[in-house]
UniProtKB/TrEMBL annotation:
InterPro entries: UCP033563 (IPR008323)
Species this protein is from: Pontibacter populi
Name of the protein: DUF1015 domain-containing protein
Domain of life of the native organism: Bacteria
C-alpha cells in the first residue's frame, strides 16, 4: 500500500544564530494577516518560503531559496532519516496534557483512485493552483501535510519514544503548543517504519490543498517524462504521520460565518423553520454548549440574536445528494444541504468557493464578527469524530470543505524537503 521514504532534510544552519522559534511560522492556510506582518519582518523566517511575497510570489520564493542555500542559511542533513515530531498541548478548560506523536517522511503522491491515500473533504481550487505553482518553481515542500495510519499495535511508538529523548529542536509555538523534533538515522529502524506503512492505507487529515498540489505536479511531470519510472523525486510529497488509534488525536469544530445574506432576518428564520426546530437563547456565549452531543444541532447568531437549531428528524431523508449514508448523517452535510442549499439557495459547487462564506475555529471570534457588523451571521457546529472521518474515507466519499480542524496544527520551519533529483533519497537508495 503506502510507500514512504526517509529524507535528507534542509534545516536552518546553527551558524544563523537565531532561536528556532523566530524562524518557524503557521501553515499557509491558518496564518493571520497580523501574524504575517510580524513574521515577514524577519528576513529568514520560513514564511518567506511557505507564503512568499511579491507580484510573482513563486518566483520570489525560488530565488530566495537558492540564495539561502548558497549563503548557508539552510543546509542539508548529511544522512537520510525519519524525523520524529511530538506536540504537547492542553485544550481550553482541561488540565490534561496531551501528546500527539508522529513522524515526518516522504510518501508517494498517490492518485485518489488508487485508494492508498484517502481524502475526506473538498478543496478550494484557487488554493490548489497556488500550491502547484510554488512547488513547480521551488521543488521544495516547505511544510508537511498531516496523514493518519491505523496501527492498533503501536509498533513504531517505542522507536519514536527513544528518539525524542535526544531532540534537535524543542520550542513553544504560536498555538502555545510545545513542539519537539528528533531524527532516526538507524537504517534497520527506518526499514521498520517503511515495512509498517507498506500494509496501510493513509487518511489525509490536514493539508488537502498542498497534497493535491503535489499530486497535480506529479501528473504534469509524468506527462513530460517519456522515461518515467515512478522513482523520480517528483513522485513524492512531505507528510507528518500519526496513528488513528491514539487518544491524543484531537479534532476541533470549524464554524461557518456569512458576511451577508440576500433576505431579511425574519424571512431567513421563517425558511429555517421549515426544516429546523428553532429555540431562542438569551446569551450567545451558550451556543457552543447547548449543542454539545446533540445530533444535527447548531448554534445560530444572527444580527445580535442567538438561537439553537435542530433538524426535524423527519426532514433528514430529503437530502438528495448522491453521497453514502455516512456522509448524509454528518452534521455539516445537514448544515450545507438544508441551510446553504435549501434556505439560502447556494448550489453545492458554488459553496466550495463562495466569497461571502468564511471558516472560523474560534467561537469567540464568530460572535465578535457578528457583534461588530463585520458579518451577518455565524453558524456554530460540533466537532467531527475520528470514527466519522474513518467511515467517510473508507466509503470513498468526501465531506464538505473545512469539515475538520485537527489540533494542533503542524508548524512550518523545523525542516524543508527537496524534490530536486540530486537532493533526494530514492526508494532504491533507501533500501540499500
Amino acid at each position: 500500500m503506502a510507500e514512504i521514504l526517509p529524507l535528507k532534510a534542509w534545516r536552518y544552519s546553527h551558524l544563523l544564530n537565531q532561536p528556532i522559534e523566530e524562524l518557524t511560522s503557521p501553515l499557509f492556510d491558518v496564518v493571520s494577516a497580523k501574524q504575517r506582518e510580524t513574521l515577514y519582518r524577519n528576513p529568514y523566517n520560513s514564511i518567506h518560503l511557505s507564503v512568499p511575497l511579491g507580484t510573482q510570489p513563486a518566483d520570489e520564493a525560488a530565488a530566495l531559496l537558492q540564495h539561502w542555500k548558497e549563503r548557508g542559511i539552510i543546509v542539508q542533513d548529511a544522512l537520510p532519516g525519519i524525523y520524529v515530531y511530538y506536540q504537547y498541548f492542553k485544550l481550553s478548560g482541561e488540565q490534561k496534557e496531551y501528546c500527539r506523536k508522529g513522524f515526518i517522511c516522504h510518501i508517494k503522491a498517490y492518485d485518489w483512485n488508487e485508494r492508498v491515500l484517502l481524502r475526506h473533504e473538498n478543496t478550494i481550487p484557487s488554493a490548489v493552483n497556488d500550491r502547484i505553482d510554488l512547488l513547480a518553481k521551488t521543488e521544495l515542500n516547505s511544510s508537511a501535510t498531516h496523514g493518519l495510519y491505523t496501527d492498533p499495535e503501536f509498533a513504531l511508538e517505542q522507536y519514536m519514544d527513544e528518539s525524542i529523548k535526544s531532540p534537535i529542536y524543542e520550542t513553544e509555538d504560536y498555538q502555545g503548543v510545545r513542539d519537539v523534533l528528533a531524527v532516526i538515522h538507524d537504517h534497520d529502524v527506518i526499514q521498520k517504519f517503511m515495512d509498517v506503512l507498506r500494509d496501510k492505507q493513509v487518511l489525509l487529515a490536514d493539508g488537502h490543498h498542498r497534497y493535491e498540489g503535489s499530486l497535480e505536479y506529479r501528473k504534469r511531470m509524468m506527462a513530460q517524462n517519456p522515461s518515467h519510472t515512478g522513482f523520480e523525486a517528483y513522485n513524492y510529497h512531505l507528510m507528518y504521520l500519526t496513528n488513528t488509534e491514539s487518544d491524543d488525536l484531537r479534532i476541533l469544530p470549524t464554524h461557518r460565518v456569512l458576511q451577508q445574506i440576500d433576505m431579511s432576518d425574519e424571512e431567513f428564520l421563517q425558511r429555517l423553520g421549515e426544516f429546523f426546530t428553532i429555540i431562542p437563547k438569551e446569551d450567545p456565549v451558550e451556543l457552543n454548549e447547548v449543542i454539545v452531543g446533540k445530533k444535527w444541532a447548531f448554534g445560530l447568531y444572527l444580527s445580535g440574536n442567538a438561537y439553537k437549531l435542530r433538524l426535524k428528524p423527519e426532514m433528514h431523508h430529503l437530502i438528495d445528494w448522491e453521497v453514502p449514508q455516512e456522509v448524509k448523517d454528518l452534521d455539516l452535510t445537514v448544515m450545507h444541504y438544508f441551510i446553504f442549499q435549501c434556505v439560502l439557495g447556494i448550489d453545492p459547487e458554488v459553496q466550495r468557493n463562495y466569497s461571502r462564506l468564511s471558516y472560523e475555529r474560534n467561537f469567540t471570534t464568530c460572535i465578535r464578527q457578528v457583534d461588530t457588523n463585520a458579518s451577518r451571521l455565524a453558524l456554530i457546529t460540533n466537532e467531527v469524530s475520528m470514527e466519522q472521518v474513518k467511515k467517510v474515507c473508507y466509503s470513498g466519499a468526501i465531506m464538505p470543505q473545512k469539515s475538520t480542524f485537527f489540533y494542533p496544527k503542524v508548524i512550518c520551519g523545523f525542516l524543508f524537503s527537496s524534490i530536486k533529483e540530486d537532493e533526494f533519497i530514492s526508494a532504491p537508495a533507501a533500501c540499500l
